[in-house]
Automatic annotation (TrEMBL):
<protein>
    <recommendedName>
        <fullName>Baseplate protein J-like barrel domain-containing protein</fullName>
    </recommendedName>
</protein>
<dbReference type="InterPro" id="IPR052399">
    <property type="entry name" value="Phage_Baseplate_Assmbl_Protein"/>
</dbReference>
<dbReference type="InterPro" id="IPR006949">
    <property type="entry name" value="Barrel_Baseplate_J-like"/>
</dbReference>
<dbReference type="Pfam" id="PF04865">
    <property type="entry name" value="Baseplate_J"/>
</dbReference>
<feature type="domain" description="Baseplate protein J-like barrel">
    <location>
        <begin position="103"/>
        <end position="179"/>
    </location>
</feature>
Length: 393
């Protein structure tokens, strides 16, 4: 189709702009219409090169216009433009976060713990809120933050040491595994949160709760399961209950949000209980799940060429770990999908080896075939748990 203009255009189908070659052909046609068809405009001519420079400027400007147009919608925006779009919905791109864990603090009623911290079995420190007051019940659930940023794993029952002894503070433990810290939020996840946030005023109470929870600071994953029957369902949810499985976020903020969105006649189900006050000052117990973390590893067999190096092996491990760690709660770890990051997504280094076998390990135990996480589980993979056996080369 012959172009009538090389300016970007907005039509019912969206925005369009000419490519470099389309702009160059258009300029050559216009040049010959002025100076004659015998004008020589190939790449080895000065006039042809000058038209090429102009065509490059035109195509670059057109591409910039297309990019600018795409920033108007959170569905097509990327990077900083996406961050600005979702700000309209009151959402901010999540910055790198620290791992958190819900700790049950037990001790004498009225005890005030100032700048306290607990220590897990791997000597990682978990910092308590600046001030924690043990209530009359003798125990309280608080969210502690790892002293170092990144993914710090503390399995259930592993945070049992009082780091800063305080009179009246008797014990500490964690019922659920820690919620792992995350890197800067990726565009795909931010778009998902934006879509869910607009569901806050929706008809469904479940959608409303999920959307509101995703808008809380630090929340990285969230799944909701509802049992509206009169029998315990296949997931083990009691009759007429709602189960929220959530990673990240402050436990009290989560509980308060859930309480404010809860519908009548529906109970909570989870492994973490938090007491919050309603609008009349009455204590209400809210339950939700902190996902159990399953340690995932892989045993990989491969045939290599002489160009294969240990650095390539490290890249394979990192690519697989990154893939597993972005999986959602209750996802399936499928072997056929693991081959993609194991193949470095088709990069040049993938030409130096061929994958012959992959075996999944879960908590150190080999699994036959794929592995499906339970509804309240999340996968975590460290590169040290990936073993690559190389033959050949």
């Amino acid at each position: 189709m012959t172009l009538t203009t090389i300016a970007p255009q907005i039509t019912d189908s969206g925005v369009s702009a000419p490519t470099y070659f389309e702009a160059l052909d258009y300029l050559k046609d216009q040049y010959k219409a002025i100076y004659g068809d015998d004008a020589y405009l190939e790449n080895d001519s000065q006039d042809g090169q000058w038209l090429g420079v102009i065509a490059r400027v035109v195509s670059d400007c057109g591409a910039a216009c297309v990019d600018a147009y795409s920033t108007f919608s959170p569905k097509t925006a990327t990077g900083d433009a996406l961050s600005r779009n979702v700000a309209i919905n009151g959402i901010k791109r999540a910055l790198p976060t620290y791992s958190t864990v819900d700790l049950t603090i037990t001790g004498t009623s009225g005890t005030v713990i100032t700048n306290g911290y607990a220590v897990d079995k791997n000597n990682n420190q978990w910092i308590l809120p600046a001030t924690v007051t043990i209530p009359s019940s003798g125990s309280i659930v608080v969210t502690a933050t790892a002293s170092q940023a990144g993914a710090i794993l503390a399995m259930a029952g592993s945070v049992t040491t009082i780091g800063k002894p305080t009179r009246g503070w008797q014990s500490v433990t964690n019922v659920a595994s820690s919620t792992l810290g995350t890197a800067v939020e990726q565009d795909a996840h931010l778009k998902q949160r934006q879509a869910l946030s607009v569901a806050i005023p929706s008809q469904s109470k479940t959608d409303s709760i999920k959307g509101a929870l995703f808008s809380l600071a630090g929340v990285s994953r969230c799944k909701t399961y509802e049992n509206d029957t009169k029998q315990t369902n296949s997931l083990g949810l009691p009759p007429n209950t709602l189960c929220v499985v959530i990673s990240g976020g402050d436990a009290n903020a989560i509980a308060q949000t859930m309480r404010s969105k809860k519908s009548l006649g529906c109970g909570w189900y989870g492994n973490t209980s938090v007491s919050v006050n309603d609008n009349f000052g009455e204590a209400v117990i809210v339950q939700f799940y902190r996902p159990n973390v399953r340690s995932i590893g892989f045993i990989i067999g491969a045939q290599s060429t002489v160009d294969y190096t240990s650095d390539i092996g490290d890249s394979i491990k990192q690519a697989i770990a990154n893939y597993v760690n972005q999986l959602d709660i209750g996802d399936k770890i499928a072997l056929n999908k693991i081959y993609v990051p194991a193949g470095l997504y088709g990069g040049l280094d993938s030409m130096t080896y061929d994958i012959s076998s992959i075996i999944i390990t879960v908590d150190g135990q080999q699994i036959s075939g794929d592995f499906l996480l339970s509804f309240n589980e999340v996968a975590y993979c460290e590169t040290k748990n990936i073993d690559i056996s190389i033959a050949g080369g």
